Hints:
The protein is of the alpha/beta class. It has two domains: 5-151 and 307-333, Rossmann fold; 171-301, Rossmann fold, CATH 3.40.50.2000. 33% of the residues lie in helices and 19% in strands. The protein is built from 13 helices and 15 strands. It has helices at 12-16, 38-52, 78-84, 99-103, 109-120, 129-137, 186-195, 224-232, 248-255, 268-272, 285-294, 296-301, 308-318; strands at 5-6, 9-11, 25-28, 57-59, 68-72, 90-95, 123-126, 145-148, 171-177, 201-207, 217-219, 236-239, 260-263, 276-279, 331-333. Strands 1-2-4-3-5-6-7-8-15 form a nine-stranded mixed beta sheet, with helices on both faces. A six-stranded parallel beta sheet has the order 11-10-9-12-13-14, sandwiched between helices. Helix 9 links the parallel strand 12 and strand 13 (260-263). The radius of gyration is 20 Å and the shape is globular. It starts with a strand and ends with a strand.
Amino acid sequence: MKNGICNGLLDLGAVLAGQFTSADLSIFHEFESPPTGGGHQFLRAFRMQAEMHGLRVENNIISRTTRACLFNSFNFNEKRLQRTRRSSVLYVHRVDGPIGVYRGWDDGVDGSIHAVNQKYADKTIFQSRYSLEKHLELGMQFQKPVIIMNAADPHIFHPRGRTEFSSNRKTRLIASSWSDNPNKGALVYQWLDENLDWSRFEMTFVGRSPVVFKNIHMMPAVDSFRMAELFRGHDIYLTASRNDPCSNSLIEALTCGLPAIHLQSGGHSEIVGQAGAGFETAEQIPVLLEQIVKNYRSVQSIISVPSIEQVGELYLQTLELMDDKSININGRRSE
């Protein structure tokens, strides 16, 4: 942290030092330096949107003029939130998961998130209907739930300058994961590595994998700018992650113009819509690839993901920091 500024947000040290005396919105989240997962990236992009609306944003502190606080899942300092809490502030809890289902084991984190929600939250933002309904299946009711899908930073993720699709070369596939958890789909990628027709396809995997591939080109995790470049240099995004509530990587790939093939699990189908295809077993993927390659431009043309401007406005409406407007299908109030 330099001069009291951390990731562009007003920070606790700066407020206590008197550099800043007021803010409209506080984001409680422990940011990490890139390359990092989707939550960090989305909240940075949302913060920029809030500031573009003329709002003053602080990080991990409630000041005298704070009107609303967005606190993220369990990735924040609860003791600090409790210590600086004010009765005049609207508290909105951003929740994903269930994390125990996503990770494949229950260490009590979902119960802790639910307890925090009941203790502090006035409202709750879920990132997919899957996430809300899965929590309900587990018997967890959250405060005034709203469903708002994530969006990618358009300054980084966009289709401009992307490599045009051509049937006269190998079709380029790409997958990514910042975690080597088996639920991220390594066994599916391993099956592809051993069975896909590599005379017609090539594939890049970015991130961490418990499996070393022979035919799939492996790359370590990269920052968002490099990831966006890689997306624009490929044709189809593939994700085999299981129980993923709202994959930022999937949203980013679609935003860069890539149709997607996805495991029928979690929130994937909500994000992709008709701009790709879903599979239940790895053996189905080659047929789905053939279908997308055959109809590539028509499938690509129906990619529809919300913009960060739309999502930012929906967050600000939920935080009651701007006038309420009708909530569209990509960001809608729960029934």
